[in-house]
Amino acid sequence: MKNAEIIAKLNLEQKCALLSGAGTFTTRGCPKAGVPSITLSDGPNGVRKQAGAADHLGLNPSVPATCFPTAATVACSWDPALGEQLGQAMGEEAAAQEVAVLLGPGLNTKRSPLCGRNFEYFSEDPYLSGKMAAAYVRGIQSEGIAACPKHFAVNSQELRRMASDSVLDERTLRELYLTGFEIVVKEAAPKTIMSSYNLVNGTYANENAHLLQDILRRDWGFSGAVVTDWGGSNDHALGVKNGSTLEMPAPGGDAVRELLAAVQSGKITEADVDARLDELLTLVLDTSAAVQKHSRSFDADAHHALARRAAADGHGVPGDEAAQGKGGLAERFLDLFRGVAVAREPVLRLGEMFAQPVHGVGEGRAARRYAFVERQPFGEAGIEQPRERQNDDDEAEKNGEERGEVGGKAEPVPQTDVDGREQHGDDHGPEQHVEEGQKQPSEQHGRSREKKEKRPRLETLPVVVHEKLLRPRGRQFFSSRSSRSRSMRTRNAPSLRSMRTMPGAAFFMGWMYFAREY
Fold first, then answer.
1. Roughly how many angstroms between the first and final C-alpha of the chain, as a whole number?
2. pLDDT at position 453, please?
3. pLDDT tens track for 183-233
4. What is the mean pLDDT of the chain?
């Protein structure tokens, strides 16, 4: 062990106490043994150290720092050198604010656009994520502090993230979900890694010996500390035994008593505690020394310019234009909003498909209309315009007169039968032959089709919602020795897959209702 002398000075209670946080973003210290307290802080795209008392919700204001582009943007540059520069700038600001561990970068695999943290992950490609994250880590740690790649591992959704179980085979785990982390560990040697909330194949990631011991430490050679996600510790003693170093944030005295009881009962050994403490002391002593040496200042203007260049590079802007803050998609959209003519490839304006209501025409003949966005640029702004397109049955109706439009309202088109007499389509059935002198069906009920105003209605394409989304079947979420209790608890519980897709289904059903009503 690297820190055997310090560990020898501590009793078991002190050892157990050091393995959990003292505050929301601070560790415990033991001045008598020469162990300082250090500060950890978010974040993936800039330091978020709170002024005064810290809180997990971020209610108190933060110390001013540069807001760099998110990982999702920087990854679009495909430039690890840029990522390293950003990391170095963030590390410099963190050290200036006395932050010893910067909690980032995030490099989980993007599985769904519904994941609420996709903005702080690099890519769905594990190779790109790993290379960019390794560059960030090298840059951050060049300032002497620690980077903390997260969330290890298979944390691909935010919905029920503390209870979801990622079930996958070994090859999928290693070749897809762990590839980015492997690249980071082997190429950048991070001093810490953050474990995730979720279970992996039935075991919480923070207590998973296969992840933390077999793969991370034995196969990849990781020698740093593993930090729990905030509130992500479930069984602290089991976590310490299987490779989890530091429990965050401040669990209070219960965590210490739990660990003491586990050692006394034989659930874990004191050697397990010493191994985790040695990892923590290495992190604390190294980073604390770097923070103490820092000048407490940085070039804010230079970092702002770097952030601007990174944002431009993430939008594919050439170097000269990026230096002037011009070009690229961002500048192009600004031109569109300003009304400036843009002589480039037309782009789709979001929401244009449903900008104008579309009227149904030719009642009773399945003549629904839809608004399609065609590649038909209009004006000088290079924006595509929506063009109404109707079904094949209405191909012949190509102008307002043929559709019988009067004053902007769609009227039924008179037609003739084989004897040359006019007949009209009916809303609820096939066309009917009307004898001379006989009243139209609508007139018999006192409603004239000619005078009836149609309410503008937006027609939408049909959306098929699977029955399972509306009536999810049960899946076991709770463990219980009583089969009766288990069945009662899980009878109406939706499966994880169903729960993940239910918000999307609810959104589409609500959208369809709104479109048809208004």
1. 70
2. 53
3. 999 999 999 999 999 999 999 999 999 999 999 999 999 999 999 999 999
4. 75
Is residue 144 within 8 Å of 290, Cβ to Cβ? yes
Work out whether strand 405-406 and strand 409-410 pair parallel, antiparallel, or are unpaired.
antiparallel
Considering only residues 97 and 324, tell me which one the structure prediction assigns the higher pLDDT. Answer: 97
At 472 the pLDDT is: 35
d(CA 301, CA 323): 14
Tally the C-alpha atoms within 13 A of residue 279's C-alpha that lie toward its C-beta.
22
Among 306, 383, 370, 317, smallest CA distance to 344 is for 383
Pairing of strands 199-200, 165-166: parallel
The residues near 157 (Cβ < 8 Å, ≥ 6 apart) are 111, 112, 114, 115, 164, 500
Note the pLDDT of residue 489: 36
The single-letter code of the amino acid at 363 is E
CA distance 249 to 257: 16
Q: What is the pLDDT of residue 317?
A: 62
Task: Give CA–CA dist 381/377, Å, rounded.
Answer: 8
Long-range Cβ contacts of 388-392 (<8 Å, 24+ apart): 388/358, 390/361, 391/366, 391/367
The two three-digit tokens of residue 127, written as one number:
């190779």
What is the sign of the dihedral through the CA atoms of 307, 308, 311 and 313?
negative
Residue with tokens 């762990």: 178
- What residues are annotated to the active site? 229
In DSSP terms, 41 is beta-bridged to 102
Q: Which residue has the tokens 């089969």?
A: 483
Tokens of 475: 């899946």
Residue 299: predicted pLDDT:
96
